Amino acid sequence: AKAEAVLEDLAELFRTALAETGASVTLAEEVDLARRYLAIEEIRFGPRLHVQWDIDPQVHGTRVPPLVLQPLVENAVRHGIEPAQHGGLVRVRAQRQAGLVVVRVSNTLGDEPGTPGHGMALANVRERLRLLHDLAAQCDVWRDDSEGQAWFHAQITLPVA
Questions:
Q1: Which of 2, 22, 120, 158 could form a disulfide with 101 if both were Cys (CB 3.0 to 4.6 A apart)?
Q2: What predicted TM-score, i.e. pTM, was given to this entire model?
């Protein structure tokens, strides 16, 4: 049953990856895709990966480029959870704030730094946002120490649909 669920999730990931570049999807669809991706990773990492979701239903209809959220959760797992000996936590939040939709993917960081990436996923996310929303959307990243833990955050800010 687990293998069948993983195959269904992979099939959905591939269908979305093959979608027309200029098209848009709802944030609800992107969240569903990210949930499927993280479900696969939860099988892979077992108790080393913990995921928390906080998605405001008011933002479900927001138009976003396809595959704008999945690379952020993938980066969270690859650079935050995978290199941490005891794993960690990935939080995905989406809410309306002051006339904007704010989507944030946060992950804990382990004591050992992960392998640095090339920034291609973030560049791709920024380009997809630019093509759909021009200057009205942005993607920011930062690191901080809170809750007695080092965190990495990737945040997308979009106009309200």
A1: 158
A2: 0.87
